[in-house]
Amino acid sequence: MAIEEQFNLVAKSYDENRKKFISCFDDYYISSTGFIAKTLKYAPKVIYDLGSGTGLLPTFWYKYFPKSEYVLIDITEEMLNVARKRFAGISNIKYEVLDYSESMQDGNPALIISV
């Protein structure tokens, strides 16, 4: 089974299952995002999230940079469908089903994030 198929199968329960296995899950995202965001001297114009999955990481970044444009990139459609529901009604977030190891959108992103 290809990796895309595996992630598509677990997309809806992915975040909850990760929290079961990683006890400091929320603390990690909150503290690491807060630390990095506070050290930046500018608000990034574009933030790319590579391997975005369900869009969990951008939820923490969005608190600091709500005006930045976000591009959530993942290899699976179902994971990004969860992200689309998470960010329903927010217009500055785009979604790309893409194997970023092969190609990425042209441009100079101000910030690339990934966990």
Automatic annotation (TrEMBL):
The keyword Transcription does not apply. Residues 47-103 form the Methyltransferase domain. InterPro entries: Methyltransf_25, SAM-dependent_MTases_sf. One of its GO terms (molecular function) is methyltransferase activity. Keywords: Methyltransferase, Transferase. One of its GO terms (biological process) is methylation. This is Methyltransferase domain-containing protein.
